[in-house]
Amino acid sequence: TQSTWDWQYADPYETEVQCVPELSEQSTNTERVVLAARGQLHIEGGWPKEIDVGEEEHKVRYRKKAEKEDVYVASTKALVSEADVFIKQNNAIDIYEDYFHDAELPAMFSADPPSVKTLTVFGDPSGSKSRTPVALSWTPADGKKLAIAYCNLNTPIPSASAAELAVGDPVRSYVWDINNPNSPDMALEPPSPLTTLQYNPKEAYTIVGGTANGLICHFDVRHKTTPWGTSDVASSHQHVVHDVRWLQNKPTEFMSVSTDGAIFFWDTKKLTEPIDSIYLKPKGAFADDSDSGMFGGLVIDYSPIIGGTSKFMVGTEQGAALTCSRRGKTPFDRVTGVYRGHHGPIYAVERNFHCPKFFLTVGDWRAQLWMEDMRMPIVSSKYHSAYLTDALWHPLRPGVFFTAKLDGSLDAWDLLYKQNAPLLSVQVSDVGLQCMKPHPNGQLIAAGSTQSATHLLELSPYLYEPQRDEKTLVTAVLEREAAREKVLLQRAKELKNRMRNEEMEEETTFPQPSAAYFNAITHDYISALEDAGVDTVHVLKDKVALQTMCQTSGNATPQPGGVRVTPRDAHAVPTSPGSPPGAR
Length: 584
Hints:
This protein is of the alpha+beta class.
């Protein structure tokens, strides 16, 4: 049989088939882990309810009663037998044995190269991108928390009232826990943005800060975030407070400096007015024509190692570092020294912790090392392409210091390695660095950038582990540079004195003419007489005879009046100085 199919004719068409399985791409972000600090308090426990833990006699009586029971002896024997096995194992193999405790590798040849890496970044919780971390302070001793002062450097300086700030301009500063960079530990709420702050080295719960409108604020972080005390407007600074430092003699006293030229000393017990003051206006041998007014203070270095608790240094916006003392009779007589060496404001001045007679300054495009006895720097860095904004000595290594620049880089210097260039340069941020502060243990550095971020940097062991005899070697290097500078200054002084003496001799003495000079003048004079038709002296027949007489007489100078000339047809003969006029 033949089946009939109903075929349907259609036009040809093309289709594409992909042999590879089709896949879809998706992305997701993991949930951020929010850390929270929790504490646990361990107290004495395990006693029966009838025993008062606070009464030592009750506990002693209960112990004696328990020791007399038969169960106590049996339990003690069972515990001793179990512990005896582990004690024998520990005596057989000491898992904590140090095989190379006597072998010390020289620290100069550290296996790890010097390096700096970023651990975390603390942002501005207010959300503002225009505020800059202008001051940093670690909690003393442990350094678990970091206080950061934020301020907008591009806005005009506000007045004493916080209500006159721009609408929405935040004024809060924050305290961070370095183990929790996601949220601040607490906020500080001053009446005006803080421009500087510092923890009390003897009381970790006390913070003092200076504001942009010249006020001083005292915070007690145990009670509240607002200031515990604030200075009066009339007795405060007239300009921005740039730095504060706690004093060592009393835990409640501190000092502040401002660009109004005043240093005020305060007591937290009474902030209504300062207890003492110093005005930055050099006098006497330290003043010059440029010191027409006050010096504006920017930074304080307070080191009680030199000069006790009354001596400190101040970096000024005029490019000079001043040494001050509270022992002066009047506030204007307490500037004891001036060190000039920068073309712009000094943003950092700090003494070496281990060699305190040497100090470091940073201003314009250079960093300079000074010795207290000299008025010229003993070591100067080259002129960098970017402005230098801060510098600090390492707290553990005498020969290592760090500088921050406006291009966002951080330079590490090692004086034992080389003095003319940094040991290491690290690009920390794409924007400029504003301030730095080292951790008390020397392993970390906090660096604030100009766009609300504070970078927590970790140093390699080479940069924080002290080297063998480093203090002695660094002192020798700095003493050598100081001696070299003294020799150069003495040489320059000698050359200057020699040039001054030569100039004085030229002004007081006249040059004596030589015999050749007189011969030439005589020859020209006789030639002029002959050309004029005047008869010369009979004794000197001609020019040759005169020249012969001058040559035979050596360097003798003709005496005045020794030759007399008469007109034509007259006779002239030599006369002696004692002859009467007209004698022949």
